[in-house]
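Translate sequence into structure tokens.
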Amino acid sequence: MPRTPVAQVDDGLLDGEENIRRDEAALARGQPGVRVARISAPALSIGVGQNSNVPSARRARALGLPVIRRTTGGTGVLLGDGDVVWSIVLPRDDPRVGPDFVHAYGRLGLGVVHTLASFGVQAEWGPALGLSEEFCFLGSRGCALTSGGRALGGAAQHATRSALLHHGVVPLTLDRQRLEAVFGLAPAISEPKLTTLLELVPTVNPISFAARLGDLIVDALDSA
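Result follows.
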């Protein structure tokens, strides 16, 4: 099947629930597209296979955080103010999906790596770090986006018979105390094993970063 041009949308600021709703609407349409947005308020996002009363969800609610369920896999992700989220939707018969899409985090996430490189940050998609069964970025499944050995982001997927949704997040900042409380992490893990966009690029403008991210994801897909 010939590759259809990829449309791009920048949705600006959205809360986590609305962001997920828009991803699922795009998946249902099944048209090639890239979408970026920035998170407007903290929330815990849990994977489709997780029970709504998993320990991280109970701890998040006790802290007054909304808990939202996405339809992609993986475990919990603590979304924060200004975090940059991105998504790719492609028809299943688009050659850019490929039979290896379940393991294609590096290929589908190449635009994220290129964007970080344009801001002077070396990053890569690599094996899961296997340090937490509750926090997705440090989980034991899939791949992690890392820089200098520290987790910087993650991604997840939802495949239907007709289309694939591949989406992820790069945190702008990180409330380590809140993250440790929600996921039961020790500071000895969260301090040396996690980083954020603002830590790596102190002068970054998240609006500009999101715009460039959308452009470079599309460029990477068009070049694939």
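Note: The domain at 7-223 is CATH 3.30.930.10 (BirA Bifunctional Protein; domain 2).
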